[in-house]
Predict the structure.
Amino acid sequence: MKILGFSAKKSDRLAIANYYAYRYNGFDMKFHSHPNAEIMYNDGGACEIYWKTGGGSKRHSLKKGQFAVLPSQLTHMLYVPQGGRCDILNLELTISSEAGLPCAELEAAGLSFLSGGIVFAEDTASVGSTIKKLHEELGSAQFNAGSGLQTAALLAQLMVMIARVSHRNESESSYIINKAMKYIENEYPNGISSRDVAESMKLHPVYLERQFKKHTGKSMLAHINYLRVERAKQLILNTALPLIDIGAECGFNTRQNFYETFKKHEGCSPSDYRRKKKERTDSSYRQTPYETEQENQPE
């Protein structure tokens, strides 16, 4: 089974390997990876987390009250701009054969974030305060077997909290994307841009664009243009409207934009598309099915 990037056996346990609280001032970390998974909570200030992907790297801004879950062996780095600061509460997790939470029970509990990739979320379920309690428990001078049980209980509580917050964030993201899609479908003929979509929803354009691409695999502009081209094809086939009017009716702001976007999608210009469809239609009327059947009859 996969647990936070680890290949774990059912007999394995998820345990805390290390913990720290640190204030980073103007910090530029190098890309690195390590065997432990991490939970990073921003307790003050701001930072950026970069991580490597197959095609380069990605970035996420982590603000106060937000947290990140980074799986084992992820190549990543932390960046705090010069003059800035960020207070990080960190837990490093590992797989153990002795102490910790049974991996089989975690899997049975359906904590889906554990088998996934990176998690970024807003703390709406006391994630930060639970991490602080874990820090206090782990740093206690009276740490004993009883404290170990308390640590395990807090870690289990933390896992459930993260799962709930992650699920809530996914639901909120789905709502945002559905709302954006509905706006685009209603307004694409009016020459809207991706910024117009974001403004209508009172969201930052970069945030909405990131969420949209994450859920649909394409940018908002790509989806807008797809709808425009599909509508243009319908009008070209079913009306005698001039092409310049069709472009305007579909939301293209210039004739050139209409031509270039249409050709990119269909491999030909709007005029060539109309001509080819007309030729195909004309040829189908040259012979009726009855005439074709008669021609094929033996003499």
About this structure: The chain has two domains: 2-171, 222-285. The two ends are 73 Å apart (CA to CA). Confidence is low (pLDDT under 50) at residues 287-299.
